[in-house]
Amino acid sequence: YGIDNDKIKINPFNGIKITKGKKHITYLTEAEIQAIMGLKIENKSIERVRDIFILLCGTGLSYCDLKTLQQEDIKECNGTYYIKKNRGKTGVEFTAVILPFALPIALNLPKIISNQKLNAYLKLLGDMAGTRCSLHCHLARHTYCTLLYNKGVSITTVAKAAGHSNIRTTQQFYAHLEDNTVINEIARVL
Q: How far apart are CA 59 and CA 115, in angstroms?
């Protein structure tokens, strides 16, 4: 603004490089998912939020893709259920296999609430379950990719399931190798 309106002659920020700090990406373990699923919840709203979150963890859907999910988007092939559609954000086609723990919820889709309300309830749900990280919708997407990757699914397939057009996105931000996966895989070849 100053330069454009002749208030200053040179940009005082020339030569200064601003870098972002490395963001720590979190995800849930299978044990944490089981803890959330095993919660005895008497409040119907929180129970629905739990079901929505478990569905997100078991499909890798983003909130915007969940919001548009219809029962006819769920397909079956040889006993395996999956969702095939285009991402709302990018238009990239994805094929997300529904993990077994989320299948009962997927076959009986719950009514979806607003993203803001969902995330507010998820914080409460995380406290109830004692998770090590704060729950939010996007955490479920990281969880799905990480679960697949640690079960031996190739990074290329994880990227296709997530609807990423660039495999580097999946490698960098979504699929994380857990210590026990590294140890078990190396021990298997020794």
A: 17
